[in-house]
Design brief:
This protein has 565 residues and is α/β, with parallel strands linked by helices. It is 20% helix and 28% strand. It has an eight-stranded parallel barrel, surrounded by five helices. Strands 19-21-22-27-24 form a five-stranded antiparallel beta sheet, with no helix packed on it. Strand 6, helix 5 and strand 7 form a beta-alpha-beta unit. The N and C termini lie far apart (49 Å). 49% of the residues are buried.
Length: 565
């Protein structure tokens, strides 16, 4: 494959480079590459052969300033006598992708890793290191050899916010020393505004692009239009950002399994994109996590079609772009075909086509009971059975479990996992038919208000570096459940641990799904049962259940204290 991509790069250079990535467009498509999320990740060069993506984000540098790189199966070789990855195949592919008019940037951070700066001097020194190792500088060890990246992305989901503005300013000073090409600074904040880790940095440093993660949160795409908050980020871009031309992307999961919640199908994402494009000039396009998921599910094809149909720019991305646009009046028709991918389970490939005639809804068979693994189904149906989602594959249901604390709900014909937020948790439904149990109207039963729902992950007071987060679960009448997520940032903790926090006024804790809970006024302590715990743990996720008075609110994260032997 390395020889093939090298030859392709030579051919492209001979034939002439494609149009370069244009950051000013509102129709760019960015996707993350490197973590093999769909378990069928191809080489970087394979994804650059066609016109689909405009920008690739390499994920991740999940350790800095002591550099740790991780690209899963894409690179597993190191420099001799070093643990630093040496990726000549990716290096060749970077140059090939760039020859096709695509930008390639490196993401720093991620959901787990050992990263962060002690202060400005530490950050400035690392900006020099990054320039020398990944851009136009010189270093004895360059993971991508002589390939020169187009920028840096900050996906900071842990640690402190110290030093990042200084890092960006120093790196941009290096950018300015090379006027031969354009370089970029990007970020990938969570959708709750302001972001818990990057909020201050976003207001005090220059960014060209921001890939807002509209998933795994209350403000995700699945909450459109009620709590979907692109307006907050558009306002930030126009009033707070140093760069008033910064572009904000709609970050989306590439498939139902790419995130715990937030996935919407291609037709729904197209509708959301068109709505945002009509209202907010800061829109830059769409981002997906990740390219392997988006290509396998087929949503990448739908995204490219939507961007080309409605955006300000059309990038050929190095491949021939076909258009189904007609000058006649047409109606949009959603067509669904089965993917030929060998991944398990097979997903449906959703594409948008145009026709001058309308079509009727496809007929489907609604099972007489909830979708159960192995039971018969038809076509491309999807369904829900409480905490399990179901996908029809080869005439039989394939089921999987939603993440702890989330449940399956139907969004049109798509099954997706989400926090219940007052909805029934025993939903039994399939696409192409009515729900098989009564569903309550979300807006009428939810007692949550937006500020009280925002998770606030932060470092806990602890005898080891630990991150804690409270996430709203079921909220019905005066009953609530809250999901507690505890994650170590560095070293594993033992099965003998305790976790304490302060409840909001008027709340009680009746039970916990892990360990045993004790309460003294508003002070709660949850003690693990070492006999049922693993000897070493990187995370503990469990649910507490109780009652509340008045308006439900999440516990304040800064009251959390975690300890382990």
């Amino acid at each position: 494959m390395r020889l093939l991509t090298s030859l392709l790069a030579v051919f492209a250079a001979t034939a002439g480079s494609s149009a370069a990535f244009d950051v000013s467009c509102n129709s760019n498509y960015a996707s993350y590459y490197g973590q093999n999320s769909a378990r069928n990740q191809q080489s970087l060069g394979e994804y650059c052969k066609d016109a689909t993506e405009d920008l690739i984000v390499l994920a991740f540098m999940n350790g800095f300033p002591n550099i740790i790189l991780n690209f899963a199966n894409a690179c597993e070789t190191t420099f001799e006598g070093s643990t630093l990855l040496h990726c000549p195949n990716i290096a060749s592919d970077i140059k090939y992708c760039q020859s096709k008019g695509k930008a390639v940037i490196l993401s720093m951070g991620g959901a787990s890793g050992a990263y962060g700066f002690s202060g400005d001097s530490d950050a400035i020194a690392f900006a020099d290191t990054a320039w020398n190792m990944f851009f136009k500088g010189k270093s004895d060890k360059r993971p991508f050899d002589d390939a020169v990246l187009d920028g840096i992305d900050l996906d900071i989901e842990g640690g402190s916010g110290a030093g990042y503005p200084a890092f960006i300013n120093q790196l941009r000073s290096h950018y300015a020393s090379d006027p031969s090409k354009k370089y970029y600074i990007a970020a990938a904040p969570q959708c709750p505004y302001p972001d818990s880790y990057l909020g201050t940095t976003l207001n005090s440093a220059w960014f060209d692009m921001v890939y807002v993660q509209f998933y795994n949160n209350f403000c995700g795409l699945n909450a459109y239009p009620t709590w979907f908050n692109f307006a907050d980020w558009d306002n930030w871009a126009k009033t707070k950002s140093l760069n008033k031309d910064v572009k904000v992307y709609i970050g989306a999961p590439g498939s139902p399994s790419a995130a715990s919640s937030g996935y919407v199908d291609g037709a729904t994402l197209t509708s959301i994109y068109n709505d945002v494009r009509s209202k907010y000039s800061s829109l830059g396009g769409i981002m997906t996590w990740d390219v392997s998921q988006a290509r396998t599910s087929g949503i990448a094809k739908s995204i490219r079609a939507a961007l080309d149909a409605g955006g300000t720019c059309k990038h050929d991305g190095g491949g021939s772009t076909t258009s189904s646009t007609s000058t006649s009046t047409s109606t949009t028709v959603l067509t669904t075909t089965t993917s030929t991918s060998t991944s398990t389970p097979p997903y449906s490939t959703t594409s948008i086509s145009t026709s001058t005639t309308s079509t009727s809804e496809p007929t489907s068979t609604t099972p007489a009971n909830c979708p159960v693994s192995g039971a018969p189904c038809s076509g491309n149906q999807q369904g829900c059975n409480g905490q399990k989602f179901a996908i029809c594959a080869g005439g039989s249901w394939y089921t999987g479990s939603c993440a702890p604390g989330t449940y399956c709900y139907m969004g049109g014909n798509t099954a997706m996992c989400d926090w219940s937020n007052g909805r029934p948790t025993d939903t039994c439904a399939v696409s192409g038919g009515a729900s098989l149990s009564k569903r309550l109207d979300f807006n009428k039963v939810s007692l949550i208000t937006r500020p009280n729902l925002r998770p606030k992950p932060m470092s806990a007071k602890s005898n080891r570096p630990t991150r804690v987060e409270f996430v709203a679960g079921d909220i019905t009448d005066n009953k609530y459940s809250t999901v507690v997520k505890i994650q170590t940032n560095k070293n594993a903790f033992t099965g003998d641990w305790s976790f304490s926090f302060t409840l909001p006024e008027g709340q009680t804790v009746e039970s916990t799904s892990r360990g045993a809970a004790s309460i003294n006024n508003n002070a709660v302590t949850i003690k693990s049962d070492p006999s049922s715990e693993d000897a070493n743990n990187m995370a503990a996720i469990f649910k507490i259940v109780g009652t509340f008075k008045g308006t439900y609110a999440l516990p304040e994260t800064n009251s959390a204290v975690f300890s382990s032997t």
